[in-house]
Records
---
Amino acid sequence: MTRRNSLLATTLLAACLATSLSSASLAKSPSPSYDLVQPVAPQSVGMDAEGLKALDAAMAKAVADGEVAGLSTLLVRHGKVVQFNTYGQASIDQAKPMAKDTILRIYSMTKPITGVAMMMLYEEGKWKLDDPVSKYLPELANLTVMSGVDEQGNVRTEPAKRVPTMRELMSHTSGFGYGLDPRGPIDKMFRKAAVLQSNDLADLVTRTSKLPLKFQPGENWSYSIGVDLQGRIVEVLSGQKFSDFLQQRIFTPLNMKDTAFYVETSKVDRLSDVYATNPATGKLIALSPKMGPQVQDFTKPHGLESGGGGLTSTASDYGRFSQMVLNGGTLDGVRLLKPQSIALMGVNAIAPGIHPDGSLIAGMGTSAFAFKDGVGFGLDFMVVSDPKTAALPVGKGTLSWGGAAGTWFWIDPTNDLYFVGMIQRMGAKPGAADLPGQAQALTYKALTHPEK
């Protein structure tokens, strides 16, 4: 998510999609070489070419209708590129086409990457799921919890019954706020404290420690600052700056050459513009840092390396990350995680009886990544544990998430495929096309021979 706290940003950034990977059926696929290999014949991987044309037409229509400036989609099955298409423009003003190497703001698609970093340290024995968060962030030892609101709108508090656990931190059941809900009293406090404008991750922890939790740890679900706190835990446990850890341990081994917290000068010409819909005209308008602090300038380094939403990337790079997850933690002969650790990330961590608030997701106008029966949340991924109950076409154990500028992905281990969708639009006007939902429905409609 964006790092700014204006009401505009709160509304626009309030959504990030979802799904997650179970221990059943971790694929052992060769990794695709996106830049070197042409897409395979769809029928060779069990997909129907005519069905994929319908997918292509739906994505192209969103551009033609002016709903998005540009769009890129990447569909891979059995480690082979089925489709890698681009549509429209990365910059309308500059007449710059969307390209396969266009760099985009992925916002909350940063979260699963942070989760993988955490699991690498988990495998090294540096933390356990039921450890209290305060073991690694002592500033969080004496938290309070909102118990109500008085007649003046002031938050009443009570002591937390206990410190949230690491498992709760990674599954958004810890109780921390975020600042994204324009109505929530705790989120208002997060915005007032400018938590998302902290100087660095250590400062973010300090500011968060002074604010109440929304609920007692483990007793509810709320999308939270928890993944930014994880970024700081990575620093504490590794002794490295968060960006250095990601570069050394994830991006370089996976050859994710264009993923970073800011875009270097030599690459700025590949950075897409980001848009919002003008409510008065219904037309897209390009957003600029000159418009205010809510529009982050990704062309310059900044102190807060947000584990929750600070990265820029490309469809190719995020595809390599997705393939690593689909492969059970390995890519191109390099292993980042054990299959058991990847599987653990896809185990639903939400206790029975807790019904996550999906309003942030619903605000993006998609049905593909919504909380419902059969859909839960694991460690920094949403997971589809029962597709039939959820009335979703994906396979059991499908993982996903998305970003505030409309990017999305899902990873389906049952069907050995993943999909990455990239746009740059903050928020969606009423009635806008449900791009993730369309992409998901049409992808599986085209999967005519899943046994192949």
---
Amino acid sequence: MAQAGDWCWRALRGATTAEANTVPAIREAVLELLETLERENQLHPRQILSVMFSVTPDLDAIYPATVARERPYWDEVAMLDVQHMAVVHGLPRCIRLLAHAQLPATQRLVHPYLRGAKQLRPDWSYSH
């Protein structure tokens, strides 16, 4: 078990794609991303200081932070939604996150890149 002095602020990244620009499709993708982030990093939302979500311009049916607040304790996390810059030939319907959390300094971090976002970081892509 880590001692109190062994903990520090760590940055976690992740991304996924939504099947469509609909509330159900975005909700499904965001929930899967957050559940994977928590499970694979043994992370409780109370350890999270902040999360920034970025979405590609083709996703505007719901804010990812609105979906996140539906999960237990996520209403206590500072969150910001922004539009990701549009890049020619960029990945469509992509949701990215950057989270800052208090975790053990020696813990191996898992940055979940799911669904179509696996191609963004093949070295970090997560397989269930």
